[in-house]
Design brief:
With 280 residues, the protein is of the alpha+beta class. The chain has twelve helices and five strands. A five-stranded antiparallel beta sheet has the order 3-2-1-4-5. The longest helix has 22 residues.
């Protein structure tokens, strides 16, 4: 979370009443389907996976908020228009680039400790990209798989706030999930995303707004990220924009299964627990 200080003013802006409910609902979409099966609240979750890991999940939802449009409104555009003069030019560029970035799954394909590392996009393909982050390079190993947003400013790549370390098993589930999503039409994707919000609402995991983004606007925004409701197939960029919660839900489900076992009632269907890595 060392990068969080760069976004301190923006995070305060996002906590204002007009954006707070949307942020809370996005956090629900990133964790509630899993924590609901385990009957856990966020405090209980922190006791199991640690406060740092919970903050990482919060950062995933926060970055999601930055990238979403709600009936033509976007928190980054709103902030930069009204408070952007308080930021340096480089920070304004970083904030805008972060809002345009999409979470994907990366594999570390090479590194130089204290200097940086190469990552290869496992969902989009393409050539490896050099990330100039010496501190992070010290914590990584070649072959590690991370879900993160790659932020490119002035030809240099950096990671966003959030990064989730995936085991090989969990990362393969991510790849399989996004391969399946490629088979959906825009109409089917919009229906799936609307169904996600309605399922969360039925479980009591969604809050309607008093001063900010209404629940109906939230539903429309989530479904709208799939584009026009046509029978055309979704491209990978649109899929990544529509479904960042796939990463957090898969990551959290595997993490809880490793630490405390399967959800109540599913013990007989559980696979062998994965090896635990301390880089949560």
């Amino acid at each position: 979370m060392a990068r969080l200080h760069r976004l301190e003013r923006l995070t305060k802006w996002a906590s204002r009443p007009e954006w707070n409910e949307a942020m809370e609902n996005l956090l629900d979409s990133h964790v509630f389907l899993v924590t609901g099966r385990y009957d856990l609240d966020l405090d209980q979750l922190a006791d199991i996976i640690g406060e740092t890991a919970v903050m990482n999940l919060w950062a995933c939802a926060f970055e999601d908020l930055l990238s979403r449009d709600f009936d033509g409104r976007n928190v980054v555009d709103d902030y930069l228009k009204r408070r952007g003069w308080k930021e340096s030019a480089s920070n304004r560029a970083y904030i805008k680039a972060l809002s345009d970035a999409r979470m994907s799954l990366y594999e570390v394909s090479g590194l130089k400790r204290g200097h940086g590392f190469y990552v290869r996009d496992l969902l989009r393909g393409g050539e490896p990209v050099w990330v100039s982050d010496g501190l992070r390079a010290n914590d990584l190993a070649e072959g590690d798989r991370l879900a993160a947003r790659l932020v490119e400013v002035n030809g240099q790549a950096d990671l966003g706030l959030a990064s989730l370390w995936f085991s090989l098993v969990a990362s393969e589930e991510v790849i399989e999930t996004f391969e399946e999503l490629k088979n959906l039409s825009r109409r089917e994707m919009a229906s799936m995303m609307t169904g996600l919000v309605e399922a969360l609402e039925a479980e009591g995991g969604m809050a309607d707004a008093v001063d900010g983004i209404s629940l109906e606007e939230f539903k429309q925004a989530i479904a709208g990220n799939a584009g026009d409701a046509s029978d055309e197939p979704m491209g990978i960029e649109a899929i990544l924009a529509s479904s960042p919660e796939q990463f957090t839900n898969i990551w959290l489900e595997h993490m809880l299964n490793r630490l405390i076992g399967p959800p109540p009632g599913l013990e007989d269907d559980a696979d062998e627990p994965e090896e635990i890595d301390d880089r949560k």
